Amino acid sequence: MGIFEPYRAIGYITNSVPFSVQRLGTETFVTVSVGKAFQVYNCAKLNLVLVGPQLPKKIRALASYREYTFAAYGSDIAVFKRAHQVANWSSHNAKVNLLLLFGDHILSVDINGNMFMWHFKGNEDSPSPVGQVTLEGQFSPSCIMHPDTYLNKVMLGSLEGSLELWNISSKKKLYEFKGWNSSVCCCVSSPALDVVAIGCADGKVHVHNIRYDQELFSFTHSTRGSVTALSFSSDGQPLLASGGSSGVISIWNLEKRRLQSVIREAHDSSIVSLHFFANEPVLMSSSTDNSIKMWIFDTTDGDPRLLRFRSGHSAPPLCIRFYANGRHILSAGQDRAFRLFSVIQDQQSRELSQRHVAKRAKKLKLKEEEIKLKPVIAFDCAEIRERDWCNVVTCHVDTPQAYVWRLQNFVLGEHILKPCPENPMPIKACAISACGNFAFLGTEGGWIERFNLQSGASRGSYLDKKEGRNAAHIGEVVGLACDSTNTHVISAGVGGDIKVWNFKERDLKSRWEIGSSVVKIVYHRVNGLLAVVTDDLVIRLFDIVASRMVRKFEGHTDRITDLSFSEDGKWLLTSSMDGSLRIWDVILARQIDALQVDASITAFSISPNMDILATTHVDQNGVYLWVNQLMFSGSSNVDTHASGKDIVNVKLPSVSSTEGMEFEDRDENPSKPPESKDLSGFHISSQQIPDLITLSLLPRSQWQSLVNLDIIKARNKPIEPPKKPEKAPFFLPSLPSLSGEILFKPSESANTERAEKGVDNEEHKKSDITSSQFLQILESSSEVQNFSAFTDYIKGLSPSTLDLELRMLQIIDDDDRQEPEKRPELISIELLLDYFIHEITCRNNFEFIQAFIRLFLKIHGETIRCQLTLQEKARKLLDIQSSVWQDGLNLNFESEMENYIGKRKPTIGLSLFTAFSASFSSDKAKSPRDFENGVVGLGIVAAMTDSHKFHEPFVSSKAVSPRSCSIPIVSSAKPAANFRGGLNLEKEQHEVVDELSESYTCVTSHFGNHVIEKRVFFNGELEMVNGRSSNMVTYGVFSTSPMSFGVAERGIFAAEFLSSCHLCCKHLHGLDIFMYRGEKAFCSVECRDKHIRGDDRREKCGSKAMKDYSALPCSVAGPPALASGVVAA
């Protein structure tokens, strides 16, 4: 395994295999072949929607039906349902070259004349065909077609020129057509009965009546070549489209029996397929030039125009370069096209315009290829001036001028750069300065000239007066470069001389001879190193400032084709015609990795982020992408992936990045999670560093949705009320109901049977809890004390599904006949608590587990409070959680506090179920609703007491308040009546400032009349309070005075938590409890509604709405109670 791993190939659209069109619902899709894989495009916009997996051999034929795709490769046929291979048919002994969809069957024909019939609906796994026909005599099948309305009959054409009509049901040949002494290339059925069109190799199209074996008329192509594709229009127009090997599409009028129009520049190569869409004036064509085009007939003269297309290079690329921070790739090919490929989205790829090529070609009656610029041999780009003027310059084969391009508009620029107009010579090298203002051109005659890209004007030439003539080099200039500060210009001559010029003065500063002919150079602007490739297969590195050689690399055995520095300058990558790609470490001066591929690399480029390598290869029209494993794996050590001096043989990347995009759960044992193949090949460690919190790598929305599930459900509620159900028919007996739903009256026999089984069914329901996959995996993982399988399973569940699984464990009824410890729901809840303890101890999937715990406690918090066994587990979970959380605080305390104190002043409120960085992420004040909505945390566990200690206060210094709001520090010098819930009702300014550091916490309180109080806490103990003795009670790092809070805004206190009404303070023991926001208990719906209305009024109106709601009348009387403590946060 090397540093770079194959990823995928881009730039492939189609090849020489005919496409297959299928309709799925209201949309039409086309399936095309791209070598060993297939691609599916949506015909609405020709967007790529699916890429099939890689097959062992190249695809020879395609057929499709709805979600099924049939691909013939070699002598086998692969059956895919979308991207999943569901069957492989292998009964042929020769290569299969024809496939035909025939109802619920697929007909396959091999080159030896054997035709098999396969039934695929419901029998995808069937390995044998349902029928076989062997063609007689010297008959080499070249095409197959089903005539419309001809039941169980197919028509085959041959290379010998004859045609045969077969009945596949009776396996008999019905008739043989003699043909026209020319090979049959294609045949297609027409909308008219008994009429077909046959294309021959001699360029003729015969419209034939097969019922009477009579030719109706024929057409002859004006261009040479065979007829390769045919299609009839079905939208009411009598049109026939024919495509030939010359790339020309002819449109024939069948009523007038003459040529209607010709698309001369439809494609640059042979037409492979033509298809008229049903009841639409749209024609789709594909060609071996790697393009798909759609033509629409909507003009007044009946000529088609280009509607949309997808295309790639029709000839191998010559040079490539990453652009736009690695999101795009500039590619110049031998097909005279200059293209921009998107690494992310295929539909963003396009060819740069060369200004009205099609219009000029039509006017001059020439091919577009002849009008285009000659192939690019070198180019350079600069992103810094993309919005201002042209930022790309290109050199072309045997062209004495260079062209500029504006990538912002994807168009050829208006300026043409012509160096040395007195003696024009072909340009061989080019470069753009770091500022993006100047372009440097080097010619075959040794001339170097500088141009301004904005105006296109010349800004002087670089001449070496010692050469004895007006030139910079003797012979061809093979390379140019400019430093980052526009101080030096470096040039290389084919004779082996390297020269450094003064940028502004244009005079020679230094030079040195290498002793061998220079082939190529590349300069790294950051480290100032120049890499030079010579024809002796040696790579030399020079320090431009010191003017000396600093490194020398040898190892290639054939011509070096390209070289490039990595963005950080530590690596030098080189490719050669020997098929190898070598990576050299500049600092260590040695080879660290080498790859060997089947097709030699002609050009490559590494992205600025060093995460992707793009390569082009001999006789390959696409661009191949490789990923840097050091960027995507858990290890950053080069030695874990590099091969050193050894060469690793690797295959080229395929069109599909993964061989299996989706997986189906076929495991019959639900206790085992579905296994997925590791397709990336990367090693991902579950715990990278011991005792360090590890995140789950899940999308943020997945675990945040667990926290906000109630809000999401409330938002998604239907706006319209549910409709009243319709009345049942009069002949069906029904019972009246209060809800309005239809209740059918059961029969007497059903009532009797139900009465007999009543007790048994009830006992069965109590004891036999549905054993879901969730519980089975949890139990199996608990037995082996390895919860990784359970974690992987719940990470794959949606938030709603996970919430449903937890609610299925709720205890809805109180069954006194069964011991609480033996109830299966309590056992499952206990197992979940053990799981939480294990995961938090291991510090794995931290943010996901925190969200999961919060949802769990919100649903089962009441059950835990009532069970002593579960309380012990919950207390243990609290201790471990507090310890792990404190470790995280200590690790990040210094850096986070330094940033936090500079931005915010209010006290810190850490929520136990919020990511650590989220406590410091928001600078905006939050309302009580934002803090409290749906919060149920381990503060519940901290406040829980045993039944015999019901009135004994319990406060833990490790507990974290479930309300992430500021806790006021109240001075005993001020009357307690001035404060309600931490707010000053006399409008005195009250500001609390935390001055935090690693070893102590300093809390300063500002009150009215310049009263300031300062407290210093060391390791959670109050050390000093302004030099005065304090009568405050210390719990952890927070202190409270013996003051009273308003009843409506007091906090959660251990003595009264879930024991008295939050509003009227009535004792709740033995009564129904009405909860609000998970932390406030009420004795009645009226009390809870009054409190909710008060919260809403305070949130909307602020301090103006602050009232003592304890004075409001309440239907349930009870003694008042005052707060006496604050839970440590």
Automatic annotation (TrEMBL):
Top-rank taxon of the source lineage equals Eukaryota
Keywords, alphabetical: Metal-binding, WD repeat, Zinc, Zinc-finger
GO function terms (MF aspect) = zinc ion binding
Listed under GO biological process in this entry are: rRNA processing
According to the record, the residues making up region (Disordered) are 658-680
The protein's matches in Pfam families, at most eight in alphabetical order, are given as:
Beta-prop_WDR36-Utp21_1st (PF25171), Beta-prop_WDR36-Utp21_2nd (PF25168), Utp21 (PF04192), zf-FLZ (PF04570)
Q: Which SMART domains match?
A: WD40 (SM00320)
Q: Where are the WD repeats?
A: 220-262, 264-295, 553-586
Q: Listed GO cellular component terms?
A: Pwp2p-containing subcomplex of 90S preribosome; small-subunit processome
| Amino acid composition bias (Basic and acidic residues), ranges on this chain | 668-680
Residue intervals of the FLZ-type domain: 1056-1099
Zinc finger annotations (FLZ-type) as residue ranges: 1056-1099
Instruction: Describe the family membership recorded for this protein in Swiss-Prot or TrEMBL.
Output: Belongs to the FLZ family.
Q: What is this protein called?
A: FLZ-type domain-containing protein
